[in-house]
Design a protein that fits this description.
The chain is of the alpha/beta class. Helices cover 33% and strands 17% of the residues. A hairpin with a 6-residue loop joins β5 and β6. It is globular, with a radius of gyration of 15 Å.
Length: 204
């Protein structure tokens, strides 16, 4: 079954605060956009992804990402990560109540469509999640068809998602586990091989 994904995004100038200093200060918003662009380019090239809804703090600031084939909507009044995921889920299910909805982070610049497709295949319609490479965070959360997404992102989200009944996926999926929060994370992603948008940025 194909998945509809919700991807949240802060204003590029505000996002990825722990990544500040990786590039010149005035290039930081561009780097944040590049991380998202490479993530979304991989997502939209997966044959198992039906729709991608980008829930943005400022839709105009990320409008260029619409060229990648994603739909962009404004975040809800409650400006938290989990609220953004729930808002996107509600919009997707308003169109198709039986939709299989997933939550994906926007900072996976090394993402390969094959890893995402493999995760969706392993999940096989069950509530499931992919932990980050440290094993504590979550990069992808999948609901069972027609069931609530129930996102619990934030510190310790992998444990929280497991406690809520989500099944941890065990394939290697290196590109899907390599989210970028710090300069060290970015170096790891670059070693895996990032997309063209991130690769264009000169990192200190």
């Amino acid at each position: 079954m194909d998945v509809d994904l919700v991807v949240p995004m802060k204003h590029p100038r505000d996002g990825k605060s722990r990544l500040r200093g990786a590039v010149e200060a005035d290039h930081h918003p561009g780097l944040v956009l590049a991380l998202a662009a490479d993530t979304l380019a991989a997502v939209t090239s997966s044959a198992r992804v039906r729709r991608v809804l980008l829930v943005a703090a400022d839709p105009e600031a990320v409008a260029e990402l619409g060229e990648l084939g994603v739909e962009i909507v404004a975040e809800p009044a409650e400006k938290t990560l989990n609220a953004a995921f729930r808002h996107g889920e509600a919009l997707l299910k308003a169109d198709d109540p039986a939709a299989l909805v997933g939550a994906l982070q926007a900072d996976l610049p090394a993402l390969r469509a094959g890893d995402l497709t493999a995760a969706l295949t392993e999940a096989a319609g069950r509530r499931a999640f992919v932990a980050d490479r440290q094993g504590t965070g979550t990069t992808l959360l999948l609901a069972a068809p027609g069931e609530p997404l129930d996102p619990r992102f934030g510190p310790g989200s992998a444990r929280k998602h497991a406690e809520s009944g989500a099944i941890p996926l065990h394939q290697a999926l290196p590109s899907l586990r390599s989210d970028v929060d710090t300069p060290g994370d970015l170096a790891h992603a670059r070693a895996l091989g990032v997309g063209k948008h991130t690769a264009a940025h000169h990192v200190r």
